[in-house]
Amino acid sequence: MGIQIRAATPDLLAAAVRKFMGAEPGRTYLDSPGTLAFVAADPEVLGWCWGYHLPRPDGTSMLYLHQFAVDENHRRRGIGKGLLRAFMTAGTRAGATKMFLTTGADNHPARSLYDALGGGLAEQGPTVNYWFVLDR
């Protein structure tokens, strides 16, 4: 059958969450507006990516890629490129004109892939990421 890259179904997403996050999947992600998730499988899960299509106040929209991973034993086979292309194509069809993501400065394999697909460093220069833990 070969490696297939497709939009995540609840079962595929659950398998990817277990493999790449080491957690039990939530039930509402795929039902939430603007979510995008793709899984590569053969039939086991080999990679995934997920994020959001975000509308902007100026009437445009963009993509945010939150997580992207390919099983270490299956890298350099085009899986990552296929996942990112699927994610970007879905976003383009939804009206997005830009995509952003954050990666580690030393994550050279990922950065090479992003460069190869036409990505570039943010024009505003170096950025700093902040995380906030919100009280419930």
Automatic annotation (TrEMBL):
Stored Gene3D superfamilies: 3.40.630.30
GO terms, molecular function: acyltransferase activity, transferring groups other than amino-acyl groups
Transferase recorded as keyword: yes
Keywords associated with the record: Transferase
One Pfam family in the UniProt entry: Acetyltransf_1
InterPro entries found in the cross-reference section: Acyl_CoA_acyltransferase (IPR016181), GNAT_dom (IPR000182)
Domain of life, per lineage: Bacteria
PROSITE patterns, alphabetized: GNAT
Statement: the UniProt record of this protein carries the keyword Transferase: yes
Annotated ranges, domain N-acetyltransferase: 1-136
UniProt name for this protein: GNAT family N-acetyltransferase
Organism: Kribbella albertanoniae
